[in-house]
Specification:
Length: 345
């Protein structure tokens, strides 16, 4: 194509864009024009610019200048058309009439979330018995999460934790137990604390498991603390949460940071211990793990296990709320469906 033909093509392109932009009715029409002109593959102006390297130098300079000027004017035409459409849309919106006397939608006021209510009730129980509420970091290091809790690097218990490790070598805590050592390192005995918090494990999400959930860590250390104190606290807490007729039992278990260790169960509220579908026919529902603080953990925190003893337990807030309200799916707490939460309230 000669120089004159190329110039005419550029001029015709400008006129065509100006005409179509002036009558465009939607942003989509403008975008279609923009793509047709500037598209990398097949755009009308892009095609012209692609031929510039093949032209003689003199012709290349003249056509290139015209093409650049055309590009600027086309972009201005499209911008003006876009502004016209925006102004028209605004005018239509401002022209709407609203009946300000029509009743508005009342705000939806939900009760306190069931997990928060359960945690508040547990915290109230412990506060009235002289326990301090303390918080700990969700991002932990391996020492406090494992070694200080008598879980050495080669111990198989680390595998069962399914830990989330971070790039800097730290981890998301797998339990609230690290605060046992942190608190004992900071405060002298006697010590009585409750540690609520979120914990993380690499569990698949299903009706009874989640990759993140809430725990409470109870710890009491003093001279003469025995397993009997732990049993009394468990009994009283269960009656406080579930009613005066509920019973508790302890089943021997094993945890690396307590010795002896036990699982805490509460009697099923539906069958009163007779056995039903909810409790699997056993008459009991599992609450969590507990035991006497292991001497190695006391020693790691600078406490003398010859003179001091303590009990500790870790209970799941979701688990307690499920038992309390007859919920059979832990996902209810994180999905926050209003209809489901209204039924629990």
């Amino acid at each position: 194509m000669n120089n004159g033909g190329m110039e005419n093509e550029i001029s015709d392109l400008e006129d065509d864009v100006a005409r179509r932009a002036a009558v465009s009715r939607t942003p989509a029409e403008l975008e279609a024009i923009r793509t047709e002109v500037f598209g990398r593959r097949g755009g009308r102006l892009s095609r012209i610019m692609a031929t510039l390297p093949t032209m003689p130098p003199a012709q290349r300079a003249q056509v290139g200048l015209q093409a650049n000027q055309a590009k600027k004017r086309i972009e201005e035409a499209l911008a003006a058309a876009q502004e016209r459409l925006t102004d028209a849309e605004m005018a239509v919106s401002l022209g709407h009439k609203y009946d300000v006397s029509f009743p508005g939608t009342a705000p939806r006021i939900q009760p306190i979330h069931v997990l928060r209510r359960t945690l508040n009730d547990v915290a109230e129980f412990f506060r009235h018995r002289g326990f301090a509420i303390v918080m700990g970091p969700e991002i932990e290091n391996e020492y406090y999460n494992f070694e200080a809790m008598n879980i050495p690097p080669d111990h198989p218990a680390r595998d069962s934790m399914d830990t989330f490790y971070l790039p800097d070598g730290n981890l998301l805590r797998t339990h609230t137990s690290p605060m046992q050592v942190r608190a004992m390192l900071r405060y002298p005995s006697p010590l009585a604390i409750l540690v609520p918090g979120r914990v993380y494990r690499r569990d698949a999400l299903d009706a009874s498991h989640s990759f993140t959930f809430h725990q409470i860590e109870g710890l009491q250390v003093d001279r003469g603390v025995t397993f009997g104190h732990l049993k009394a606290f468990a009994r009283d807490l269960c009656r406080h949460l579930f009613g005066p007729g509920r019973r508790t039992r302890f089943r021997p278990s094993y945890f690396q940071f307590t010795e002896p260790s036990a699982e805490v169960d509460v009697s099923c509220g539906l069958c009163d211990g007779a056995g039903c579908r909810t409790c699997g026919g056993s008459g009991w529902l599992e609450m969590g793990g507990s035991g006497m603080v292991h001497p190695k953990v006391l020693r790691e925190a600078g406490y003398d296990p010859e003179n001091l003893s303590g009990w500790a337990w870790g209970l799941g807030i979701e688990r307690m709320a499920m038992l309390r309200h007859g919920i059979d799916d832990i996902r209810v707490f994180s999905e926050n469906e209003p209809a489901a939460l209204d039924q629990i309230a």
